[in-house]
């Protein structure tokens, strides 16, 4: 849903481009999109900072407007999430991206895609929150650039149909116990996560585990999909609920590690070995005295 009027940039009226080529404006410069996500839109100081970055990177604003995305809009931008193998990421993204106001900014300029990618990196470095909420999106893959520009330059401003591009995703997705969960259970768990985040913030996510002399910790650095990583945890720790598994991932991202299990030295080392054998990062070590005494540091 659009919130304001179409606002073209000066001297940069958008036009079409030959099929198969990069989308370009009337001056012949490539086009791209910066999509300020709900958490970025509300963050004090980020919008004027983003304007300065656009100017500093030599880009021109073709159009910009605020809007609220619906589920179909989200799936148009990230079609691989609707393809099936990423049910948890799909629902987390839907709750996140439909939960507030966004701002779409279509820009043009030399090397627009690379410059927008650099802007995204700067914003996430300076203002980023977690892997689940990272302020700003821009298309980077060749197959997604034109559809994303069409979506925010033509389809949404003018109420025209949008043709979603095909992106089944190449990363391994959910399997085993997590893949067998009904969609209603995944929707409920992910909605609870976002309600907790809005009520208490990201630092409120801590996986409660029984204290012990030795523990297995989940560590950041996993390059797989969120759904694959969570599926690994679901298989090696079948007693954890989906909400607990998501909590562990958030805690790992925010605090640098999440304690998954405590037990004997042999048990925790074996668990860490199983997790790392599946391609994730984990380690077993003696539990810190403060953590063993209080279950979690204050």
Task: Give a short synopsis of this structure.
This protein has 298 residues and is an alpha+beta fold.
Report what the structure shows:
The chain is α+β, with helices and mostly antiparallel strands. The chain has two domains: 31-158, 2-Layer Sandwich (Alpha-Beta Plaits), CATH 3.30.70.141; 176-294, Ribosomal Protein L30, Chain: A, CATH 3.30.1390.10. It is 45% helix and 14% strand. The protein is built from twelve helices and seven strands. It has helices spanning 38-42, 46-56, 71-77, 87-97, 112-127, 142-158, 176-179, 183-200, 226-236, 242-255, 265-277, 289-294; strands at 31-36, 60-67, 102-108, 136-137, 214-219, 258-263, 281-286. A four-stranded antiparallel sheet has the order 2-3-1-4, sandwiched between helices. Helix 4 (87-97) crosses helix 8 (183-200). The longest helix has 18 residues, at 183-200. The radius of gyration is 21 Å and the shape is elongated. It starts with 30 loop residues before the first strand and ends with a helix.
Keywords:
three-stranded antiparallel sheet, Alpha-Beta Plaits, 7 strands, 2 domains, four-stranded antiparallel sheet, 12 helices, elongated, Ribosomal Protein L30, Chain: A, alpha+beta
Strand line-up across the major sheet: 2-3-1-4
Considering the protein shown, what is the CATH homologous superfamily of the largest domain? Nucleoside diphosphate kinase-like domain
The proportion of residues in beta strands is 5-15%
* Order of helical and strand elements: EHHEHHEHEHHHEHHEHEH
| Named CATH topology of the largest domain | Alpha-Beta Plaits
Please give the largest β-sheet.
4 strands, antiparallel
Low-confidence stretches: 8-14, 290-298
Class by alpha and beta content: alpha+beta
Overall geometry: elongated
Tally of alpha and pi helices: 12
Assembly status: single chain
pLDDT averaged over residues? 90
The N- and C-terminal alpha carbons lie at a distance of: 43 Å
What is the total tally of β strands? Answer: 7
Q: Mind telling me which CATH architecture of the largest domain this is?
A: 2-Layer Sandwich
Q: How many structural domains can be distinguished in the coordinates?
A: 2
Radius of gyration: 21 Å
Give the CATH level 1 class of the largest domain. Answer: Alpha Beta
Name the helicity range.
40-55%
